[in-house]
């Protein structure tokens, strides 16, 4: 088996010496800067990736925007999450790079004149048509027209987000219902969103041209990648994240546990291994241990103070139900009620939340959370079932509305259960301020977590699944 | 091997795309580009995506296009190097020792039994030691454990295998390597660093239409179009297992066999089990999509 005459992995040798041919010199520093920005956003881009990116660029025609983007993405972004950040950063970075050049060289494009004379209805029809066809180039042209038209029509508020919404309202772009119920009437949600992004870009460009300077680049708002806290964000995205977590929970964690505790000899593999030593079983082979399936009790606050978060928590619950056979869920406000069977019967998230609101007897008179009563009732209902193998997870903000926290009773719950975790949808900074009594419960928990982004959720899941915490 | 050499270096991106198409695989822009880069940079490709979007199929198509044999390693939990890399053929070694006349020097026997004759090459070793270049498919890498991944690193970056008794076996030919993953666990950074990354997702309606038409050209286009429309609607529901491309094709074949001229409620109900494979999913789909078929919302086949 002779060594290969083709030189090993690629023409990398040349790369160490300099840039491959075909990549213009000005691009290299830009690309390095782009990678730095990616790193700041938590994408792990090493030197190896960077070199690969240059290698890839020397192979594709980098004047072709899509090829350029895909080649970079294939070499720099190595997970779906990274890819998402990449897309956001790519658009922003190269948009800024172009504008920076323009400002530097004092280039100004003649803005579209005569915006006042554009017929609004005509414009609206054209935009609708473009969105319907999903034609990007056309949409971008029309976004420019729209901005020109509205710029001429009235004062701009100075805040880009406000202007985008104002233009959208005036154009009367109606979005189609979620399930495509009124097909043909509204517009595709994604396409409208794309159009909004183009409007935003156009307005930004205008701003840059007026002020002749670039606004400072901000890190991607946590909001852009956070879990839905408000109605603005996309529930489907949580579901995707949770579905991924679910699969990881179901498969991972084998190697982290076991091997150390009592094991069962695998006769077949031992015999096979003994052939190596002439039929004498010198080395024993063991059966791999199955990970223990934890019994989980989830207590979820659904009161108004956590409205936005409980939507998210319920969807987490919803997804968890698929992966744990022994999962019992409870919802509470003033009182607590078991909702396990609702999750088992209902498939869609919407139906689940409706039925919880309708059927579960969780609210009584005031509609404020009463933790003391909740713990007491939980002990009555499920106290006998708790054992050292069970894990109790509380999802709530620990805001008692001035009522007595009854931490002692919570202590009983924690004593009976093997492990107790608390997930708080508020940032740690807000804990123990106002009526939050996190402090009272914390000593009884095996862990308290703030949980309002995917990353935090993932970290928590790692702990439950018995894997070490990943420090990020 | 002039023909093989010719296929080793496709000149352009378009060539790869057309080549894959002629091998029966309509690649997306990204898939074609990454395949092209894999050729050019000699890097393995890590393909991720939901089940049934054609990750494995891409490897098969590449093998057909490049006219290279496909060597496939299906990963599973507990896969070890004896199954993936190489194994000494103990039985043969034992026989060899037994048939050896007594009095042979130990040195001779040892040199003898640890030679290539007694080595059983498993897929990975096969892939790098064969004379003709191959396409190596390491399927569902996420099913194995991390130790196995670490073992792969040597092959993926240097295309060589170290066998303690024999020394280092270097690749005689450079295989084109594809790793697929369903993303059930995070792969290690080290592995990702050595790969190009490709995320495959369900294709949009137009491309899926082309794909199905490529595989089932006999089915009238109007029906195929409607079928794809329904499939896409089903994928938008929150299902345990959304229908894959392969299932769309199966469904189209079924339609052809049944001689369907129109997809109505009863036909849909009867054949639904081809695309939906979960009891609770069946209920959801029957409820949400079946009703629409009744209403005739999906009834009209839109032109174009």
Your description of this structure?
- The complex is a heterodimer of chains A (472) and B (304).
- Chain A starts with 11 loop residues before the first helix and ends in an 8-residue tail after the last helix.
- Chain A is built from 19 helices and six strands.
- The longest helix of chain A is centred in the first third of the chain and has 26 residues, at 80-105.
- Helices cover 50% and strands 7% of the residues of chain A.
- Chain A is an alpha/beta fold and 472 residues long.
- Chain B has two domains: 2-85 and 122-199, Rossmann fold (3-Layer(aba) Sandwich); 205-295.
- Chain B is 51% helix and 12% strand.
- The longest helix of chain B has 17 residues, at 279-295.
- The two termini of chain B are 47 Å apart.
- Classes of the chains: A alpha/beta (472), B alpha/beta (304).
- At the A-B interface, helix 3, helix 4 and helix 11 of A face helix 3, helix 6, helix 9, helix 10 and strand 9 of B.
Give the overall silhouette of chain B. elongated
The total count of strands of chain A amounts to: 6
Sequence of secondary-structure elements of chain B: HHHEHEHEHHEHEHEEEHEHHHHH
Principal-axis shape of chain A equals extended
Please mark out the parts of chain B with pLDDT under 50 across 5 or more consecutive residues, or reply none: 1-7, 299-304
> Which range best describes the helical content of chain B: under 10%, 10-25%, 25-40%, 40-55%, 55-70% or over 70%?
40-55%
Average of per-residue pLDDT values of chain A: 71
Largest sheet of chain B: 5 strands, parallel
Strand sequence of the main sheet of chain B, in spatial order?
2-5-8-1-9
Number of domains of chain B: 2
The Rg value of chain A, from CA coordinates, equals 29 Å
CATH homologous group name of the largest domain in chain B: P-loop containing nucleotide triphosphate hydrolases
């Amino acid at each position: 088996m002779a060594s290969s005459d083709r030189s090993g992995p690629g023409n990398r040798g040349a790369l160490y010496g300099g840039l491959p041919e075909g990549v213009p010199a000005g691009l290299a520093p830009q690309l390095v800067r782009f990678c730095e920005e990616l790193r700041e956003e938590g994408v792990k881009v090493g030197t190896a990736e960077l070199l690969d990116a240059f290698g890839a660029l020397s192979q594709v025609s980098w004047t072709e925007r899509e090829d350029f983007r895909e080649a970079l993405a294939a070499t720099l972004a190595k997970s779906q999450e990274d890819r998402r950040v990449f897309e956001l950063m790519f658009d922003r970075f190269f948009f800024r790079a172009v504008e920076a050049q323009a400002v530097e060289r004092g280039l100004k494009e003649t803005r579209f004149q005569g915006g006042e004379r554009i017929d609004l209805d005509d414009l609206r029809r054209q935009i609708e048509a473009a969105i319907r066809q999903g034609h990007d180039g056309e949409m971008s042209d029309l976004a420019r027209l729209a901005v020109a038209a509205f710029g001429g029509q009235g004062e701009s508020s100075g805040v880009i987000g406000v202007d985008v919404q104002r233009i959208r309202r005036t154009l009367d772009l109606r979005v189609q219902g979620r399930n495509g119920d009124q097909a043909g009437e509204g517009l595709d949600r994604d396409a409208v969103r794309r159009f909004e992004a183009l409007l935003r870009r156009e307005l930004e460009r205008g701003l840059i041209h007026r002020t002749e300077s670039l606004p400072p680049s901000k890190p991607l708002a946590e909001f852009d990648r956070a879990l839905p806290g408000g109605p603005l964000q996309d529930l489907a995205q949580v579901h995707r994240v949770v579905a991924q977590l679910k699969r990881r929970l179901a498969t991972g964690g084998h190697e982290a546990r076991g091997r150390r505790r009592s094991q069962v000899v695998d006769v077949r593999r031992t015999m096979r291994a003994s052939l190596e030593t002439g039929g004498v079983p010198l080395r024993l082979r063991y059966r791999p241990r199955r990970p223990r399936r934890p019994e989980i009790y989830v207590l979820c606050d659904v009161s108004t103070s956590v409205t936005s978060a409980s939507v998210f928590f319920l969807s987490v619950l919803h997804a968890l139900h698929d992966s744990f056979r022994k999962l019992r869920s409870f919802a509470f406000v003033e009182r607590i009620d078991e909702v396990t069977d609702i999750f088992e019967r209902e498939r869609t998230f919407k139906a689940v939340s409706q039925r919880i609101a309708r059927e579960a007897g969780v609210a009584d008179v005031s509609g404020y959370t009463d933790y003391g009563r909740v713990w007491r009732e939980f002990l009555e209902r499920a106290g006998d079932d708790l054992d050292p193998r069970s894990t109790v997870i509380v999802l709530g903000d620990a805001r008692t509305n001035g009522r007595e926290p009854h931490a002692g009773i919570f202590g009983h719950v924690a004593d009976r259960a093997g492990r107790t975790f608390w997930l708080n949808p508020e940032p740690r900074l807000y804990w123990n301020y106002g009526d939050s009594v996190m402090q009272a419960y914390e000593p009884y928990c095996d862990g308290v977590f703030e949980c309002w982004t995917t990353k935090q959720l993932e970290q928590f899941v790692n702990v439950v699944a018995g894997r070490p915490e990943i420090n990020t | 091997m002039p023909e093989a050499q010719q296929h080793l270096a496709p000149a352009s991106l378009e060539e790869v795309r057309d080549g894959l198409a002629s091998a029966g695989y309509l690649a997306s822009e990204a898939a074609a580009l990454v395949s092209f880069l894999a050729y050019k940079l000699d890097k393995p490709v890590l393909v991720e995506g939901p089940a049934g979007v054609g990750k494995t199929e891409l490897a098969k198509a590449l093998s057909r296009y490049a006219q290279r044999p496909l060597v496939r390693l299906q990963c599973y939990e507990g896969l070890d190097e004896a199954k993936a890399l190489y194994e000494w053929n103990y039985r043969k070694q034992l026989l060899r020792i037994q048939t050896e006349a007594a009095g042979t020097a130990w040195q001779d026997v040892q040199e003898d039994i640890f030679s290539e004759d007694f080595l059983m090459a498993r897929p990975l070793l096969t892939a790098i030691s064969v004379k003709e270049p191959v396409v190596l498919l390491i399927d569902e890498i996420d099913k194995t454990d991390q130790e196995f991944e670490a073992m792969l690193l040597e092959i993926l970056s240097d295309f060589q295998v170290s066998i303690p008794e024999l020394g280092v076996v270097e690749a005689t030919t450079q295989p084109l390597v594809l790793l697929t993953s369903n993303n059930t666990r995070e792969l290690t950074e080290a592995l990702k660093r050595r790969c190009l990354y490709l995320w495959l997702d369900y294709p949009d309606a137009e491309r899926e239409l082309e794909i199905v038409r490529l595989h089932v050209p006999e089915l009238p286009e109007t029906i195929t179009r409607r079928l794809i429309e329904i499939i896409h609607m089903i994928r938008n529901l929150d299902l345990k297992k959304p229908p894959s491309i392969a299932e769309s094709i199966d469904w189209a074949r079924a339609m052809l066999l049944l001689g369907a001229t129109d997809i109505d409620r009863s036909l849909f109900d009867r054949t639904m089990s081809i695309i939906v494979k979960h009891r609770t999913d069946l209920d959801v789909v029957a409820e949400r999509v079946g009703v629409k078929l009744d209403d005739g919302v999906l009834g009209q086949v839109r032109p174009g």
